[in-house]
Design goal:
The complex is a heterodimer of chains A (451) and B (188). In chain A, 38% of the residues lie in helices and 20% in strands. By secondary structure, chain A is an alpha/beta fold. In chain A, helix 3 links the parallel strand 4 and strand 5. The longest helix of chain A is centred in the first third of the chain and has 22 residues. Chain A starts with 30 loop residues before the first helix and ends in an 8-residue tail after the last helix. Chain B is α+β, with helices and mostly antiparallel strands and 188 residues long. Chain B has two domains: 113 residues, Jelly Rolls (Sandwich); 71 residues, Winged helix-like DNA-binding domain superfamily/Winged helix DNA-binding domain (Arc Repressor Mutant, subunit A). Chain B is 35% helix and 31% strand. Chain B has six helices and twelve strands. The chains are: A alpha/beta (451), B alpha+beta (188). Chains A and B meet through helix 3 of A and helix 3 and helix 5 of B. The structure holds iron/sulfur cluster (SF4).
């Protein structure tokens, strides 16, 4: 890596899966606002649905998700009832409007639930919002909880995208993060998926985990490539023990140094590209014939809460505790704790706890940042016009130093990320973000490293 | 006024293309559909005998209308209707007032999609069609279903399997007396 870029290694940047990030949400956005906007959804407006399942069997020590370890399946059934209530409530607000284009089950661990419950949730969605045979169904799976026949049953329900939380194949790393899953386990899950015709299999890998070395990560990547998933997402582990106390369980002294993190990310990039994957955004890779790679190639790539996506819907509806929706310029996040969530769903009310109404200027900033992250370039004229002179000057000053360091090229109104600087995408995004300095002083520790 | 035959699977009007005639369905049936932003085709309604389509003259139709079977239509060029309107104001409205138009169909659709159970959605759909083209005999109403099941499923926001299951359940509990590929029989 360019030595001038060293200083960016330790920069903490938002992931920009929304703009402004969820850190800016507050209680001024209410369930009533959300309900009103649901009522304004167009008859055939495409919808992207997200269902959050917050349970896990065991805790991974790196976890930053909204989850709880649960051993009592009765509690999960309670949650499914609440979800079905919430889905019904949202359906009534929509009054028949909106067409779901995709449904994504995330977590936590969606397959903490048995396939029967997942089918019930889908059934509730079908009745409340409508499903067609063309609706794309995706699910995140914990390989340790995939039982005999589960993959086949999920495929029979219509799931055609499955992603596996692989993280790392090395037994030493797995022990250090409290997530032990053998290669054979993953191999057999992928085998099941292929047998039932799932042709969009995705792996999540994590770098920056304790005990990871270039050698161990190379072996992980070799095994990944051997199993030939259709996509691979390579995320950097965000160690934020002050925000996420559970991460204190993880032995900090085993974390790789900054330099190694950059090497691991570079290694993954080299090996995946050499194996024929296309780069998609700054942390996804996909086989050239995969819809995500095609979207990237055709300039249709988008960014939503699930990361980079080929999903075309602007309107997102989130179901479940802590789930976030985006409807008519409003971000609405559900109550995070199960108690608060149940209090709303039991009364047939929407469970919105926090959110944000986007101002026109935030819309412009968000568009510019997403453009940069999805297409590695951005037209900054409308962004600068939307900012105050002081903010615009600050943005230009930050861009100037990025240009001087060779991270971006800047020509008139257009900035473009240099291809080798792709790992620094989020640093550039942050340069465009007038809120970024506020974040830096106020809440730097809540953000993950940009790399 | 002129009459025209439209062979099965042929289009009467195509989304995005100009249409300058008002059509009334004389015989047969049509599927209305439009392509959504995401590229999927959405079935938005069905037209039967007596229904109107092409109510406004346009350079870009909002729908595609395709014949579900060999059908025939009468058509009135809007230019011609506008000419008559000079001597007989309101003739167009009176003409249309006798049947349903594509705008009524959009209304029907939102009502159907707002139904809470699959059974309600399916039975309301059958009743709606029955009202227009059902054939009554001895307290029973035969309702033709000229469209493929997949079209009904897409239209009602159901998966094909759910539609089949629901039809079977309605037959089971007697709300549908007879269930065949292209018609059902219900009680009046
Ligand atoms: S499976 Fe995912 S959500 Fe659950 S503990 Fe592990 S990282 Fe967290």
């Amino acid at each position: 890596m360019n030595p001038l870029w060293r200083k960016y290694l330790d920069v903490r940047a938002p992931r920009y899966t929304s703009y402004p990030s969820a850190l800016h949400f507050d209680e001024q956005a209410t369930a009533a606002d959300y309900g009103k906007r649901l009522g304004e959804v167009g008859l055939y407006e495409p919808l992207s649905l997200y269902v959050h399942i917050p349970f896990c069997r065991q805790m991974c020590w790196y976890c930053g998700c909204n989850m709880r370890v649960e051993n009592d399946y009765g509690r999960a059934l309670r949650y499914v009832r609440a979800l079905n209530n919430e889905i019904g409530t949202v359906g009534r607000r929509l009054g028949g409007a909106g067409r779901p284009l995709s449904v994504h089950f995330g977590g936590g661990t969606p397959n903490f639930l048995k396939v029967a419950e997942i089918g019930d949730i889908l059934g509730a969605i079908e009745l409340a919002l409508g499903l067609t045979d063309g609706t794309r169904l995706a699910i995140e799976l914990d390989p340790r909880l995939i039982g005999d026949g589960d993959v086949e049953r999920l495929a029979a329900l219509g799931f055609n995208r499955m992603s596996l939380g692989v993280q790392d194949f090395d037994p030493g790393v797995q022990a250090a993060i409290n997530r032990i899953q053998s290669f054979e386990m993953i191999e057999s899950a992928v085998g099941d998926m292929r047998r039932v015709g799932v042709n969009d299999v995705s792996f999540d890998l994590l770098y920056g985990l304790p005990k990871q070395t270039a050698e161990s990560f190379e072996a992980t990547l070799e095994k990944t490539i051997a199993l030939s998933p259709d996509r691979v997402a390579v995320f950097g582990y965000a160690h934020l023990p002050s925000q996420l106390p559970r991460q204190r369980l993880l032995d900090e002294t085993l974390l790789p140094p900054e330099e190694t993190r950059a090497d691991l990310a570079g290694l993954a990039d080299d090996m995946l590209v050499a194996a024929g994957y296309r780069r998609v955004g700054f942390d996804h890779y996909a086989k050239p014939d995969n819809p995500l790679a095609r979207a990237e190639l055709e300039g249709r790539l988008r960014r939503n809460f699930q990361g980079f996506t080929d999903d075309l819907a602007d309107t997102t509806i989130g179901f479940g505790a802590s789930a976030i929706g985006f409807v008519g310029g409003l971000y609405a996040q559900n109550a995070k704790t199960l108690g608060d969530y149940y209090r709303c769903t039991d009364r047939g009310e929407l469970a919105t706890a926090r959110g944000l109404v986007l101002s026109p200027r935030e819309v412009t900033i968000g568009q510019t940042i997403r453009g940069l992250l999805c297409r590695s370039q951005a037209d900054i004229a409308s962004l600068l016009a939307a900012l105050s002179p002081t903010e615009a000057n600050a943005v230009c000053a930050r861009l100037e130093s990025l240009e001087a360091d060779g991270v971006i090229s800047w020509d008139g109104d257009r900035i473009a990320l240099r291809p080798e600087a792709r790992p620094l995408s989020r640093v550039v995004a942050m340069a465009l973000d007038p809120y970024a300095p506020v974040i830096k002083d106020g809440a730097a520790r809540t953000l993950a490293r940009a790399l | 006024m002129a009459r025209r035959l439209v062979v099965k699977n042929k289009t009467l009007m195509v989304e995005g293309e100009p249409n300058h005639s008002l059509y009334v369905i004389v015989d047969g049936s049509f599927r209305l559909s439009k392509v959504l932003e995401d590229g999927r085709r959405q079935v938005t309604g069905f037209l039967f005998r007596g229904d109107f389509v092409g109510v406004r003259s346009t350079d870009a139709s909002a729908y595609t209308a395709e014949a579900l079977e060999d059908s025939s239509v009468c058509f009135f060029p809007h230019r011609y209707l506008d000419e008559i309107a000079i001597d007989a104001p309101g003739v167009k409205d009176r003409l249309i007032a006798r049947g349903q138009t594509e705008y009524h169909k959009a209304q029907d659709h939102i009502v159907l999609l707002g139904k809470k159970t699959a059974e309600e959605r399916v039975i309301s759909f059958i009743e709606l069609i029955g009202k227009t083209i059902g054939v009554d005999d001895d307290g029973r109403r035969t309702v033709p279903l000229p469209m493929p099941r997949q079209d009904i499923a897409d239209y009602l926001g159901l998966r094909l399997e759910t539609l089949s299951r629901t039809l079977a359940a309605l037959k089971q509990d007697g709300r549908i007396l007879e269930l065949a590929r292209h018609h059902v029989v219900i009680e009046i």
